């Protein structure tokens, strides 16, 4: 499958597919003319990449996870689950910090609004 076909099938721009390849997330074979040709399972790989990107994982981590998929879906081998749990814990921590910052900002706005109303 050529890069344009892969782009049409996955809805991912050709430029992004090239980027995925440059990052080591996706592989292709080159024809004598230099055209990229992807394996029939490339759309599955692209879907996995998109899923992991949507989960907030950087491409360097995704590159390490790509060989660890099981079956045709997004399930991963047990050996990488602790890493993903650690990432989830980091997100939970960041979300808690953001919630605290939001509360503090909300309190400042409320106090300021009340003070201005009485001025």
Automatic annotation (TrEMBL):
Q: Tell me the GO molecular function terms.
A: DNA binding; DNA-binding transcription factor activity
Q: List where the protein spans the membrane.
A: none
InterPro entries hit by this protein: DNA-bd_dom_put_sf, MerR-type_HTH_dom, MerR_fam
Domain HTH merR-type, chain residue ranges per copy:
1-68
Keywords for this protein: Coiled coil, DNA-binding, Repressor, Transcription, Transcription regulation
Positions the record marks as coiled coil are 81-108
Is the keyword Transcription in the record?
yes
The reply on keyword Transcription is: yes
Question: Which PANTHER family does the UniProt record give?
Answer: MERR-FAMILY TRANSCRIPTIONAL REGULATOR, REDOX-CYCLING DRUG-SENSING TRANSCRIPTIONAL ACTIVATOR SOXR
The protein here is known as: MerR family transcriptional regulator
Origin species = Planomonospora sphaerica
